[in-house]
Amino acid sequence: MHFLVVGPGAMGCLFSAGLKRAGFEVTLLDYLQQRARQINNQGIVVQGVTGDYTVKVPAVAGQISIQPDFVLICVKSYQTKQAAESIKPWLSSEAFVVTLQNGVGNLEILEEIFGKKKVFGGITAQGSTLLGPGKIRHAGQGETIIGPEEDPNGPLERIVSAFNTAGFKTRSIKNVVDLIWGKLIINVGINVLSAITRLKNGRLAEFNGTRRVMENAVKEAVAVAAAKNIRLPYPDPFARVLEVCRDTAENIASMLQDVLKEKITEVDFINGAIVREGITLGIPTPVNHTLTCLVKTIQETYEERI
Predict the structure, then answer these.
(1) What digits encode the pLDDT tens for the residues 151-184?
(2) Tell me: domain 2-174, CATH 3.30.420.10, correct?
(3) Where are the domains of the chain?
(4) Hey, which CATH number is domain 177-304, 2.30.30.140, 2.60.40.740, 1.10.1040.10, 1.10.10.10?
(5) DSSP the chain
(6) Among all residues, which ones are annotated catalytic?
(7) pTM of the prediction?
(8) Residue pLDDT, tens place only, 104-116
């Protein structure tokens, strides 16, 4: 079984290393020749909860020579369309595409490009921090869930089996959209506040100010989800966000990682998505609008920061 992992970020490196270490064929696709060469020379270096190790994973920039069975999209959400369109011309029609990306909209973008029956989506609670090119810290382990589940002997179950073999606890589910929205609402409460305050996840729940803003942002997101008939995978959304804060207390949220590296963030696909859906549905989302504007201002003024 051959996996093509698109994007050498924190998650791309984590899954590439895990799958390769478990004996699967893996190719890591980058768009930078120099970074691909560095990863080829040093391998993927992993530190953290699963131990310290290095795995040699072939990295390329451009078309690969071997056709993969599965493609794992691990780019930032704002890069999804460009990455998918770049690989489509040479990707086999027999390949299946998987996204575990943050935010909403990625699944729909990939379905439009590859076809609905060729794309699986989901979420992962694996925690990974990018330390440098091809170097990551595996910060925490959690469940990975993928869907939609249709054929118990189909391609999805092959992916699930491979991930479990690689040490990533994984299961399938029928209604993946509700699950993605469940993850979105957690990200709405945590990621943006971490990016603005530069605090680790656990600290966000300790201060009255961040806790109140978090609660209001989550309430808006829940109202939008309810209007879309989304059935969230937990009974009390704000309590679930606080629980995740505690469980991932030492994690550096992905949006904060982007801010610290002075990169574009995924805020448009997280809090910004709540704002867009709110406008469509006629639901006010002033807190999420304000948070989105603040993060976008931060990322547009990196060179002017005092």
Answers:
(1) 777 899 999 999 999 999 999 998 899 999 999 9
(2) no
(3) 2-174, 177-304
(4) 1.10.1040.10
(5) -EEEEE--SHHHHHHHHHHHHTT-EEEEEES-HHHHHHHHHH-EEEEETT--EEE---EEES--SS--SEEEE-S-GGGHHHHHHHHGGGS-TT-EEEE--SSSSHHHHHHHHH-GGGEEEEEE--EEEEEETTEEEEEE---EEEE----TTSHHHHHHHHHHHTT--EEE-S-HHHHHHHHHHHHHHHHHHHHHH---HHHHTTSHHHHHHHHHHHHHHHHHHHHTT---SSS-HHHHHHHHHHHTTT---HHHHHHHTT---SGGGTHHHHHHHHHHHT---HHHHHHHHHHHHHHH-GGG--
(6) 183
(7) 0.89
(8) 999 999 999 999 9
